[in-house]
Amino acid sequence: MATRTQHAPEQSATADAYDAAYDAIIVGAGFAGLYMLHRLRGLGLSARVIEAADGVGGTWYWNRYPGARCDIESLEYQYGFDDDLPREWRWSERYASQPEILRYINHVADRLDLRRDIQFETRVTSARFHEGAARWLIETDNGDRISAAFCIMATGCLSAPRHPGFKGLESFEGDWYHTGYWPHEGVDFTGKRAGIIGTGSSAIQSIPHIARQAAHLTVFQRTPNFSIPAHNGPIDHEAERQMTERYTEVRRRARASAAGVVSRAPSERSAMQVTPEEREAEFEARWQYGGLGMGGAFIDIVISPEANQTAADFVRGKIRSILKDPVTADLLCPKDYPFATKRLCVDTEYFETFNRNNVTLVDVRSAPIEEITPKGLRTADAEYEFDCLVFATGFDAMTGALLGIDVRGRGGQELRDAWSAGPRTYLGLQVAGFPNLFTITGPGSPSVLTNMIVSIEQHVDWIAACIEYLLEHGIKTIEPTVEAQDAWVEHVNQVASLTLFPQANSWYMGANIPGKPRVFMPYIGGLGAYAQKCDEIAANGYEGFVLA
Ligand code: FAD
Ligand code: N01
Question: If we measure between CA atoms, which residue out of 74, 498, 531, 71 comes closest to residue 299?
Fold first, then answer.
């Protein structure tokens, strides 16, 4: 095994006892892990990807629920690091479906011959930094013991599904599913009495499909969501051709933008500095265009309560205009948090589905779910019977997958302890006391507030350049100083506090997991400014990092 790093495991008896040695271990084979592998190979390094699933794709491998698709337009939700990749692939819809995205990722894995360096069906259970050898010692649930100079977590922000430990689940006599690990063979709801818990993006995409099949669907809603129509349809191949001809330029602009997209630029106007008619026209244009661009209709939507109210009123008006029953419409209108401060949803006939005779909406804010029963579930005021139950209850976002691994840095310090009051990173890329550990789209970076693939590529490029720099300069380890990390965490919090985001009980805030520290985890300063900061730090000899 060719290793380009200078520090072989034989420097340490402990590290020596490990079965295999690599320059880098990458955990996860989604968009992030695959591109990281490709870049490290390009540097001549030996790298191995370890992936829990039996295939590549990450999010798109696991989330196979009916209706799953991207809500960043397909033309932008693809790799952009290689001009040939966008030219070679033809998308069929404006928003690609999960099977199509998974086919695309498999195509890239084949095209770049990535599989030979991926170990599937293996979960990394621990990663410990051995100070003597300056190497990471990684163990898996298959009993592998591997050492590596660099440990790169490509474990995903939304990859640790959760169902909220409802009492009595084991007694349920029907079938139950979580949207985040959906059966590969699919689920046939035909003729079934189905229940679904949750009304986030996963539920909003799957509910119209399940409703079309099931005899009856009951939707248990705790918090209604703002959702914008996708207006999905066949892709415009001429627009696709034009964009892919100049994809490098498109991607350069995306990386310089706030959210990693170019298709519907955020407005620079304030909602309060235009006339009510102009405001309405802008909202209407964005509603008609469809998708996440609604969140950028005005520059102050997530900053000014008054501006926010105008957007919230507009969407609530749309919801009421779609629903036939005013009581159901009222229940579906979000009222207790600002517009776009929980992740905006993008749908196809979501609100229309509640006009169907075979769909019932149940408010579990006023009467919470108490337990799952053998025949269905019981809320505080009623009992329901089902043949099957769907949990669309989300993820332990941003930190769940990372903290699912027993990660220990210098002096045996546990990442779980270091993050007990919320994640602390420098740039979302590294953690003080955990040398040579990198987190792709880690907390403290723009990640989930952007087109994730653009953010992933920005992180992978930065990490690859950083490792190359270390090798060229004979540097063994890199880690942030505590001071630089503290200052970054402070900055991340400060920027978030200038917005309305902290007012919502969102997974951005960790609020969906009982007991999770309430901290706004992604960086909301915008991808363009953030990427520039990362580049400046590197250009200044990795300012804020200790290179030893
Ligand atoms: P993931 O795709 O989550 O991959 C992480 C991988 O790590 C997984 O395969 C997991 O099995 C593996 N892993 C984790 N822990 C371990 C371990 N201990 N050992 C071994 N393997 C491990 N983002 C957008 O920008 N636009 C969208 O339209 C969009 N749509 C989405 C739709 C859904 C249903 C969901 C859930 C998310 C969506 N996202 C979207 C976010 C999406 O997660 C990212 O776009 C992107 O796919 C993340 O890629 P990743 O490689 O970072 O992580
Ligand atoms: O998860 P969620 P998701 N009793 O956390 C409810 C991405 N994504 O899988 O809001 C009753 O959003 C919970 O209620 P509440 C996207 O980034 C993208 O849907 O906590 N209900 C909520 O309604 C997204 O944001 C797409 O009050 C309970 C729901 O479960 C992220 O992934 C598609 C409950 C969980 O919603 C996560 O989305 C899918 C309880 N005890 C996902 N516990 C695209 O469209 C939880 N809930 C691209």
Answer: 498
37 close to ligand 1 (CB < 6 Angstrom):
no
pLDDT above 70: residue 17: no
400 lines ligand 1 (CB under 6 A): no
Contact 179, 65 (CB under 8 A): yes
Provide the phi-psi class of 235: left if phi over 0, else alpha when psi is between -120 and 50, else beta. Answer: beta
Domain with CATH 3.50.50.60 in the chain: 15-160+397-541, 162-226+340-394
What pLDDT is stored for residue 16 in this prediction? Answer: 66
Decide whether any atom of ligand 1 lies within 6 Å of the 293 Cβ. Answer: no
pLDDT at residue number 14? 61
- CA of 514 from ligand 1 middle (Å) equals 22
List of residues 6+ apart from 479 with CB closer than 8 A? 430, 431, 432, 433, 434, 435, 436, 437, 545, 546
Check whether 10 has a pLDDT greater than 80: no
Ligand 1 centroid–CA 544 distance in Å is 29
Q: What is the percentage of the chain residues whose pLDDT exceeds 90?
A: 95
Residue 428's region, left for phi above 0, alpha for psi from -120 to 50, else beta, is left
Q: What is the pLDDT of residues 341-354, one digit of tens each?
A: 999 999 999 999 99
Q: Residue 224 C-alpha to ligand 2 middle, in angstroms?
A: 10
Residue 52 beta carbon below 6 angstroms from any ligand 1 atom: yes
Beta pairing partners, 407: 127
Burial call 130-161: b when 16+ CB within 10 Å, e when fewer: beebbbbbbbbeeebebbbbbbbbbbbbbbbb
Q: What is the pLDDT at residue 487?
A: 98
Please count the other Cβ atoms lying within 10 Å of the Cβ belonging to residue 228. Answer: 23
Residue 470: what residue type? L
Which fold would CATH assign to domain 162-226+340-394?
FAD/NAD(P)-binding domain (3.50.50)
- Give the phi and the psi of residue 42 in degrees, each rounded to 5: -60, -25
Closest to 172 (Cα-Cα) out of 376, 371, 369? 376
Q: 15-160+397-541 has which fold?
A: FAD/NAD(P)-binding domain (3.50.50)
- Asked if pLDDT for residue 9 goes beyond 90, the answer is no
Residue 11 is predicted with a pLDDT of 40
Inter-residue contact 377 to 371 (CB < 8 Å): yes
